[in-house]
Amino acid sequence: MGKEEADLRIGEITRTTKETNIRLRWNLDGSGRYTGSCGVGFFDHMIQAFCVHGGFDMDLDMKGDLEVDCHHSIEDLGIVMGQAFSKALGDKGSIRRYGSFYIPMDEALGFCSLDISGRPYLVFDAEFANQSVGTLGCCMVKEFFRAFAFNGGITLHLRCPYGENDHHKTEALFKAAAHALKEALEPNGGKILSSKGMLA
């Protein structure tokens, strides 16, 4: 039996700029469902994998200035996802806080280690051979995770030590991030995991 609606950790954010219009609802305690589209097909594939592997439900209604390129859309979605995550989580108490995970994706290996600390930081160690995968600029993978980490209050380390196919490398990183986040979000028996008595 799933949690009652009142007990679910849900964040809803609406953000409108001259470049993007985004409405997002993120249920951290979902079943792995993603509806909607950011307008960038390969990135929708990544977000869907992120939801499936993290056990998240995400409903997205979004329009961006894709006639320019994908930069504003991908970065702004990272901002909104970080804000929705922070809102859904609340005071960050009573969770495991830390999560780490390796994901093999054929010839590629992705690794994520993170701390839901309230102190945002990003270490991103991955190189791509091509300029893009589909209509997603590969440089935007790092920009997305930076926006997500800094708006979600997450210390986030991502690494792809080897791989040949940029699709596989990117997907390994997103799946690793999803599993690490799922692990960090698990209940911690009501105890705040900090010698300070608080996370921030």
> What characteristic shape results from the CA principal axes?
globular
- Look at the structure and give the mean pLDDT: 93
Structural class: alpha+beta
Name of the CATH class: Alpha Beta
Return residue spans where pLDDT drops below 50 for at least 5 consecutive residues: none
Q: Oligomeric form of this entry?
A: single chain
Fraction of residues in helix = 25-40%
Q: For the terminal residues, how far apart are their CA atoms?
A: 33 Å
Considering the protein shown, what is the CATH homologous superfamily?
Imidazole glycerol phosphate dehydratase, domain 1
CATH architecture: 2-Layer Sandwich
Outline:
The protein is of the alpha+beta class and 200 residues long. It has 4 helices and 10 strands; from the N terminus they run βββαβαβββββαβα.
Supply database-style keywords.
ImidazoleglycerP_deHydtase_CS, lyase, 30% strand, imidazoleglycerol-phosphate dehydratase activity, cytoplasm, Ribosomal Protein S5, domain 2, 4-stranded mixed beta sheet, Imidazoleglycerol-phosphate dehydratase
